[in-house]
Write a structure and sequence with these properties.
The protein has about 140 residues and is of the alpha+beta class. It is built from 3 helices and 8 strands. The relative contact order is 0.24.
């Protein structure tokens, strides 16, 4: 009976990571050129980065002196960030008549897109435990 209990306890200990809570986090700090407006932030996983609902969203009030946001309770994995600096406070990314952004924007890893947003392969980063990134929005 004791042997059975020890085997069950060992099996539980080795299986425990499969049942672990989502305890990873990512702290994002934004370096902005302007001290006004708000940075709109969207955190994506690979399945949603190309055009789905973000995993998490946040608004960083730069005018109030904020420059960072932390997303907690994430499962470990790969994520990508898309952000823009809403300078005029209308809650959306403004574009010119040709569809080109006229407000500053950025991606995780400070990745640069080619004729569009930065691709997943350039923007993705691994979150495992506490992760931090500084993103320059220009």
């Amino acid at each position: 009976m004791i042997r059975t209990a020890l085997i069950a306890a060992a099996a539980f200990l080795f299986a425990a990571p499969a049942f672990a809570a989502d305890d990873a986090s990512v702290a994002l700090t934004f370096d902005t050129a302007a001290a006004s407006g708000k940075v709109m932030v969207a955190l994506y996983d690979q399945a949603t980065y190309g055009g789905g609902q973000p995993v998490r969203v946040a608004m960083v009030d730069v005018a109030a002196g904020e420059h960072s946001v932390t997303f907690e309770g994430l499962p470990a994995g790969e994520y990508g960030v898309k952000a823009f600096h809403d300078l005029n406070g209308n809650g959306r990314m403004d574009t010119n008549p040709f569809g080109m952004p006229v407000e500053p924007y950025a991606f995780s890893n400070n990745a640069v897109g080619n004729m569009g947003p930065a691709g997943w392969d350039r923007a993705k980063f691994t979150v495992d435990g506490a992760t931090a990134q500084t993103i320059s929005i220009r």
